């Protein structure tokens, strides 16, 4: 079967970075979508419509991550650890989930971007999965170091994301309309004060995700203390503190900027012997070099 290359590029840039063994396996996986490389499809061809996601269930995830067979070892993945990747979903690290259904086949490509929890400014990882419309996971890949193994935690998180979307798409609210899942997002992670950070665990967030109605009865995840206003320290207060530090033989750097404490930080004068020695270092024979 010939492998088709997307018209948006005459060169499969990502696939060229793989060694021979992994390149052959990558091409083999692309046969499920007529050889179309998800990394080479034009962004405008993808859809963010959640209705186009395949019907992936928890059983499909188990069948792939645990009972699936590795193309390299011919043994089962048994990636039980990846089943904990649901924590990444409720914590909001999975983002930009899009689908693409090639015209030449029935299977669906689902891509995502996965933010780094420790390196916020690093380029997001890009897992993808290929599945049938009924939810059978056919193959997967990721740009992380373990992505060549096809069952990394990022692939698992994407599968759990799709499964969660399916559950909420099928759940009918009291108004008769499909329930809407307020997806956590990490498009831009900003530094915040401790009082503004939600420290609830992934387990707690999962409980709220499974039961959205309970969220309204939950108390604020943090408690704001009503502190009395404290006036800013003046110059006299600062000098008083520095005097106490000086008495205890402490020399913080700020003392170098405040008089009269800065006097004690003056460098000692250089001896005349050292200065005369420096003048002897010059070699007039090197002036013309």
UniProtKB/TrEMBL annotation:
<keyword id="KW-0862">Zinc</keyword>
<protein>
    <recommendedName>
        <fullName>SWIM-type domain-containing protein</fullName>
    </recommendedName>
</protein>
<keyword id="KW-0479">Metal-binding</keyword>
<feature type="domain" description="SWIM-type">
    <location>
        <begin position="127"/>
        <end position="163"/>
    </location>
</feature>
<dbReference type="GO" id="GO:0008270">
    <property type="term" value="F:zinc ion binding"/>
</dbReference>
<keyword id="KW-0863">Zinc-finger</keyword>
<dbReference type="InterPro" id="IPR007527">
    <property type="entry name" value="Znf_SWIM"/>
</dbReference>
